[in-house]
Every structure is written in structure tokens, then in C-alpha cells.
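Thread: Modeling a multi-component assembly for a lab meeting

Hi all, long-time lurker, first post. My supervisor asked me to bring a structural picture of a complex we are working on to next week's group meeting, and I have zero experience with this. I have the sequence lines for every component (153 residues in total). Could someone generate the structure of the whole assembly? Inputs are pasted exactly as I received them:
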Amino acid sequence: MKKYWLMKSEPGEVSVDDALAAPKSTVAWTGVRNYQARNYMRDGMQVDDGVLFYHSSCAEPGIVGLARVVSTPYPDPTQFDQKSHYYDPTSKKEEPRWQLVDVQMQKKTRTLGLPELRAKPGLEDLVVLRKGNRLSITPVDPKHWRLIVKLLG
DNA sequence: GCCAACGTTGGC
DNA sequence: GCCAACGTTGGC
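Re: Modeling a multi-component assembly
Sure thing. I ran the full set together rather than chain by chain. Output:
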């Protein structure tokens, strides 16, 4: 059963344009260092799941593209890279702590910002709209996905 | 820069 | 296992 997700990225790190410009429009979702978000990638995602690409910590936060999961989970290489901001000295090669998936951009869309999302009847329960939500990866209900795709035209 | 809302760490 | 202190996220 196909599932749907919202994945946050800071455009200063990896923007929707960066993802589009990557080989095969595909990026490894590096840098997740939160167990719940990791578990969604490691245990919840399957190839071909739908992804809402979201820009966070920027001038206009919101959904900026449609993507899909294109790999099964594998160890995040940045956890072993001493020069990386995401280096984790406590993670062992034999037992990697952080797993990720590859995500392929399908389509860059207009920016569907938070005010519009909040105003849309039917999206009240979208996880990313919840107060205090900080999780970088959240599940998206199929009915929310359909509404959002429709909104994006 | 502010601050709410978490998650993590570490002393006990 | 508790919980205070601390760090991070992310909108505003």
C-alpha cells in the first residue's frame, strides 16, 4: 500500500532546485538525526511512496514540489564522515544508527505556503500544521495528499 | 532575535 | 527512573 510523507529541507542546504539539478533529480536524504524521523524512513517508507517536498527555515516556508521515494533504507554516509556537520562519533560502521532513503523529484510546484495550507478546509489535521511541530518527516494522510495535489494544480 | 515546544543528556 | 538543564527546530 502506497503511503505519503512530508519531508522538510532547508533551501539553504538542499532546495527543490538543488534536488531537480541532481543526477536523476534524486537526492539522498542525509542529515536526519531524530529517531522518529529516522524510523519513518527505516520502517515506514517503501519505494514509490509519495513525498511532499517542503522548504523550512526560510522566507516562505511551504510545499514546493512533489517527489517520491526511490530506494529502500540504507546507512546515512554522513554519520561516518568526520568533516560532515552530521558526523556522529557514537555510530558504529557495523551498526549504523542513521538510515536514509533516496528521494526523486517528480515536479517542482508553486510554493504552497503555510497561510494557504492553514486556510484550506480539510487540511486542519495535517501534521506539519500542528503547533510546535518540529519533526522533519511526517506521514501525510491520503486524503490530505489528494487535496494538496489538487491545490497545486 | 524571540520564544514555544520538544528531544537529549546526565546527575542522582 | 526522574527531572532539570541544555540544545535544537522553525515560524514569526
